[in-house]
Amino acid sequence: MTGTASTEAGEFAHTYGLEVVSIPTNREPKRADEADFIYKTEDAKFAAAADDIAERNALGQPVLVGTISVEKSEKLSRLLDKRGIRHAVLNAKQHEREAHVVTQAGRVGAVTVATNMAGRGVDILLGGNPEGLVEHEAVARGITEAENPDEYAKLVADIKAACIAEGAMVREAGGLYVLGTERHESRRIDDQLRGRAGRQGDPGESRFYLSLEDDLMRLFASGAMSWVMGRTFPDDVPLEAKMVSKAIERAQRTVEDRNFEIRKDVLKYDEVLNEQRKIIYRRRQQILDGGDLRDETAKAITDAVDSIIDLLCTGNYAEDWDVDELVLAMQALYASSINADHVKELHDVRAARAAFAEDALGVYTSKEDSIGTEQLREIERRVMLSVIDQHWRDHLYEMDYLREGINLRAMGQQDPLAEWQREGYDMFEAMMGSIRDTFVQYVFRLEVVSEENVAAPERALTYSAADEPVQGASALAAAAVGFDDGTGAMGPAPEQEMPTQEPVRVERAPGRNEPCWCGSGKKFKTCHGV
């Protein structure tokens, strides 16, 4: 739910399939949205805005100023300081403190300068927020509701009464005044700023101060308007007309449409990766759920065998094959027992597929018997997850690299989106094949290691309490090789004397024009430096 979605209704419907429904306000809005003031220069605009703030501040009307950047906030703040106006500047840096300041932006004479992000989502109450004031005052007095219930209750009652009285004064002055220093590219952001005033039937007012040097005006609305203002308007005299405000809104719609087309184009590219992501995540979830990979592993083995045969058996009969290369490729995949002579006896490709598939599945079954069914299933799940994750990361990097240059295909009269979809699909299919081959290779290379074999190196590193631990380089020898101490038991190797080496000292060579080191009094270049 949001209060500013109506301007983006078309994009919500196209991108997310969501319909935007406007809900009537609970109370009749009383906010007055005034026409924009347009000045020739940015300096004249900020000077006029500062004067307007000073006038409102003198009447006790709270003012909320919205800027588009920290730089503009600080520029306006300097102008307010020159006029002696107390104000708070919020730049979306200290969110908790700034949220507290924004809640009190509706008090009498409050002036708050904020960027777009500062204090968002905080309701501004006319007269101030009593809860925030109570919390601040209680901390200042050092009282709590639990320890000082009577004093705390009196404090709450007093502050609530003060806020009600102050709220009446603010309503009498015209309510919260929202001043925007520049139009944004999106009308939605302007509506969010305007919506701070006139909440829940309270009075309020909003106005934007613009200049021909603003980004939006400079790009889309500065042609005829700049010519007219340059000939007839001084710098400090604004142009105010509803027609001009409507023209600016049309310029905003132009920018919104352009940005929507950009986002729509980006979404088309993202959909390719999104579909691939769904397949990968669905596969990972199936593995995490504890599915049995026995059948899938068997199919992966036969597919890996078939891919090698498709690559190397280009003809239909053995006479047309590179038999030696085929045997080497199969032995690289698994411990194949089929040699070149056996391959030559096969009649055709179909017989070769059947023979190698049967041989590979036999090796897999033998490994399953040696390791154990349950242990192998768990190993397969862990290996498959690791392989998928590694190849998926590499695939994302490759897709990013492809995306960086895909738009250049348009220079070759090719549709970049179609090329992205085609090559992205080919790369994904290649990745899935790599996952399969890597997984099969890992499975076939599994080795069974008993606990005794694992513990043997640890036993070689132990020594009795009477023995002294071996230090230095001989410790490595003792760890690697045990020796018979004469009793038949293996103990640590005795420490051996290691030859000591003197460090090599290198003296700095004298410069060519420095005295020679031999003491002859000549320069080095004419003595030993010749």
From TrEMBL:
Pfam families: P-loop_SecA (PF21090), SEC-C (PF02810), SecA_SW (PF07516). InterPro entries: P-loop_NTPase, SEC_C_motif, SecA, SecA_CS, SecA_motor_DEAD, SecA_SF2_C, SecA_Wing/Scaffold, SecA_Wing/Scaffold_sf. It is found in: Membrane. It is a peripheral membrane protein. GO terms for cellular component: cell envelope Sec protein transport complex; cytosol; plasma membrane. One of its GO terms (molecular function) is metal ion binding. Its main location: membrane. Residues 1-241 form the SecA family profile domain. Keywords: ATP-binding, Cytoplasm, Membrane, Metal-binding, Nucleotide-binding, Protein transport, Translocase, Translocation, Transport, Zinc. Residues 488-507 are annotated as: Disordered. GO terms for biological process: intracellular protein transport; protein import; protein targeting; protein transport by the Sec complex. Its cofactor is Zn(2+). Belongs to the SecA family. This is Unannotated protein. It comes from freshwater metagenome.
